């Protein structure tokens, strides 16, 4: 959950998000090194007198041609690795289908019989004390932690987007099309997200809440709802 005046990312709750945060820090360090070098060269050129060595030098041209290529490789290799990790879906322990509507979500647990429910935002007038405004829902998505989860995302009317920042998940919900992604929660907790695609007048009123619980609690919850 983000805090007021928070400068960085939310705490990662999945291996993919941990990799994304690490790559973000890596890219920032590369950018900081480039900016420092450019500022140093600018200051040097302003303070020193120009000479033929600084204006025409094959060694310098060779360096400023090879160095950007090395920088791009240092950024591209970890980026491609993360892209492949995000696209890879192993054998999931649970498959969840999320259907976007104007303006609520429907969830189907395809591994269980008749385990389907709608998830609406709780209005501010009915919000319990201590809960988050515009983020709480009447029915949360319950998943077992440390288990591979596959989520299939689609929509029934217009474009939506199922996004949980702390899990590193963002998948577009397109009518007539099934998109899928996967994630693993590394700790128990409640993770908040929102529709990240402008979908109409009440776009900001269809939040997403995922609750990660131990496997025994999930089994008890699923058996209670499916019975």
From TrEMBL:
Domain Cytochrome oxidase subunit II transmembrane region profile, first and last residues per copy: 1-90
PROSITE patterns: COX2, COX2_CUA, COX2_TM
Keywords, sorted A to Z: Copper, Electron transport, Magnesium, Membrane, Metal-binding, Mitochondrion, Mitochondrion inner membrane, Respiratory chain, Translocase, Transmembrane, Transmembrane helix, Transport
Catalytic activity entry: 4 Fe(II)-[cytochrome c] + O2 + 8 H(+)(in) = 4 Fe(III)-[cytochrome c] + 2 H2O + 4 H(+)(out)
Cofactor section: Cu cation
Lineage: superkingdom: Eukaryota
UniProt record similarity statement: Belongs to the cytochrome c oxidase subunit 2 family.
Protein name: Cytochrome c oxidase subunit 2
Originating species: Gavia stellata
Lineage: Eukaryota, Metazoa, Chordata, Craniata, Vertebrata
